[in-house]
Amino acid sequence: MSEHPRGRPPLPVDGIFTEALALLAEGGIATLGMRALARRLGSSTSTLYRQFPGGKDELCTRLAEHMMSKIVAALAHSDLGGRWDIVVERSAVVTFDVLHSHPHSASLFAGQVRFGPMGLTRYERSLGLLMTTGLSASDAAAADHALARLIVGYALQSAEDTEESRATVIEYYRTLDAAQFPAVTTVVPALPEDVRSEFLFALHTFMIGLRDRADGSPGVAAGAHP
């Protein structure tokens, strides 16, 4: 007996995910509805619900896992260096860039996420690496979660960051009275070019603190630092 005896045949899952990400890019998580996705696919909502019985919640969960698979693949094909801190920092940049390349996809990770196989793979590797530095289990978990929130937070903002919006803000700052706002008007020419630049600064600063934390941990793994 056919798995789908009635209605239209199932749609290719990769195609569903591609169109779902396109919907996300257009308007964020609010635009990602089953009806809107069905229209975009030229299909029916009943066909989608047969493949995603849990509706939008299931779609978002599986789409998050799809994005995680892209992140894991990108990490596997990246030169992450050898030292633990370089690996952590470069991995964060790769992860940010994958999310940034799919606007609003970071919203899939904005809440508490129950990881699928790919997410668990990344989580396991990250925690394992952090614990080789001598960090306690609780510190390693806290560091991983803080780093994830840093990445997701900036990736969420990057979806709204445009040259036009940034130029508008800078132009507003330039109209301020320098006598009343000397610090603001002084830094305007030195403002970061985009959210990615701000993220890199925040990440670098985070890593300074994480290295110090690892250095101060008892039993730091031999060879963890040059």
From TrEMBL:
Keyword Transcription on entry: yes
Keyword annotations of the record: DNA-binding, Transcription, Transcription regulation
Highest taxon of source: Bacteria
Key word Transcription present: yes
Chain ranges of the HTH tetR-type domain: 16-59
Spans traversing the lipid bilayer: none
InterPro entries: Homeodomain-like_sf, HTH_TetR, Repressor_TetR_C, Tet_transcr_reg_TetR-rel_C_sf
GO molecular function, one term: DNA binding
UniProt xrefs under Gene3D superfamilies: Homeodomain-like, Tetracycline Repressor, domain 2
The protein's name in its UniProt record: TetR family transcriptional regulator
Species assigned in the record: Gordonia mangrovi
Lineage: Bacteria, Bacillati, Actinomycetota, Actinomycetes, Mycobacteriales
